[in-house]
Amino acid sequence: MEQEIHITLRFNLATGKAGLNEIVYKLKELRDPLMLKILEKVLMSYDDLISECLSRTDIYPSKARKGLGRHIRKGDPEGRFCRGRKIRKRGHRGRPRNFSTVFGKLKLPLRVAECRNCGAFYSPLLSALKVGRYARRETNFEHEVIESVIDTNYRRLIDGRSIDISLGGIHNIVIGSDIDDTFQKPVSVEDLSAIMADGTGVKQQEGRKGELRAVIGITKAGRVEPLGSFTNTAWPEIERNIKERIKEAEPYNIPFIYDGEPGLDDFLADVAESQRCAWHGPRGLYHSLWQDGLKKKYSQPETDKIKQLIGIELPEGDFEILKEEDKETVKSKYESSKAEIKELIKTFREKGYKNGASYLENISDRLFTNIEIWLKTGVIAPKTTSLLERLFREIGRRLKKIAWGWSDKAVTNISKMIMIRQYSRDKWEQYWKDKLGIKGYFDIEIMSVNLPSCKHF
Ligand SMILES: [Zn+2]
User: Fold this and answer.
1) Do 257 and 384 contact (CB within 8 A), yes or no?
2) Residue 384 pLDDT more than 50?
């Protein structure tokens, strides 16, 4: 049904004094309150229309009442819906219903209907708006809250628009999100060039320290594919969860990269080949030699040497494709490094550095399978430190900004949102569009904006 809204604006302009900046500034201030007024009028007219359709059954055919007037039968112990679609108008509710909207707080007077069949009193507008009996906000608002939390500027959202939402309210929006149930589509390992996992500490409720863990895939095109994030969840459980999302059962020789995190040695062993981050080698070797009784002064030259030997596997960026022309260089460096490390292990043994020798043996195995895979596939394993650390830093910064301990569920959800928005922008947009249910059932346009001619000229 087509209707019009007429808006009258009055302005006062100090001739010769008002500048562009001030005019725009004042118009900007008008934007949200104006939209709020328009929203109110549209909704009130919607309410009137519904009440008309349901009460004037002599005029409107049953087709016009389709989808309207759904309500629970009065006194029904099982809360079943009533079939009655005829009402008596019973005026407005004593108090308006409050909604948090993206334009600010809306106070909406609601019509009350009395069902002629069962006698129930209800507000038919609510079910038509698809907001549910207790909803106090609309989804655009929810979207903005979440975006602003991710951008860590939620303060501005609240302060700038007298939006009434507490930190607790934000927390509830994040917890109530269905982000956990979406983004569960199966992932094909075939499209991935690597899988990475790592964890980081987060401050939670009452200063409790929690552990946030994330698993991501790197696609062959070099994009990040979030696979999951978890709070205070054991690695075996995370593994089960990730496996459920992975299509294949057969093994693929893609590298699984991690930072020496305990408990990850056999993670996803069915589908990936695990590789400890090799640049932890020097630090680990220092520790092992220390266990052998070597002071830093004496272990330093050895750890430096290792740093040099494994230097071939430290590409600059997050992720790199090994160029064909570079393969030969990598290959010869790999062979000479391999020989030198073997030599070093032998020397350690001779000197009685038992821990140092077995540590080196252990990492060199991994290190060299690592390089062998690169040479074979041409894909250089990403430097987990930069990519995962950056991801965790971003999540951590946001959680800190909220300056308020979050529950497991909230930390999990917000980190998932940050990952998806950051790395799968298109999926993130689609998610909100689906959630908002934009289907073309409402359309509004500006018909005309006129200044009535001034009677003085
Ligand atoms: Zn009824």
Assistant:
1) yes
2) no
Q: What is the DSSP letter of 334?
A: H
> How does 332-351 read in b/e, with b if 16+ C-beta sit within 10 Å?
eebeebbeebeebbeebeee
In this prediction, residue 164 carries a pLDDT of: 64
pLDDT digits (tens, 9 = 90+) for 162-197: 566 777 777 788 877 888 777 777 777 777 877 888
CA of 101 to the centre of ligand 1 (A): 30
Between CA 28 and CA 31 the distance in angstroms is 5
For residue 226, what pLDDT is reported? 83
| Ligand 1: centre distance to CA 77 (Å) | 14
Distance from residue 96's CA to the centre of ligand 1 (Å): 23
pLDDT of 319 reads: 47
Q: What's the CA-to-centroid distance between 123 and ligand 1, angstroms?
A: 12
Backbone angles phi, psi at 198, to 5 degrees: -165, 170
Residue 81 Cα to ligand 1 middle (Å)? 8
Measure 73 CA to ligand 1 centroid, in angstroms: 5
pLDDT digits (tens, 9 = 90+) for 239-275: 888 888 877 656 666 767 776 666 777 777 776 766 5
Q: Do the beta carbons of residue 372 and residue 246 sit within 8 Å?
A: no
57 CA → ligand 1 middle, Å: 15
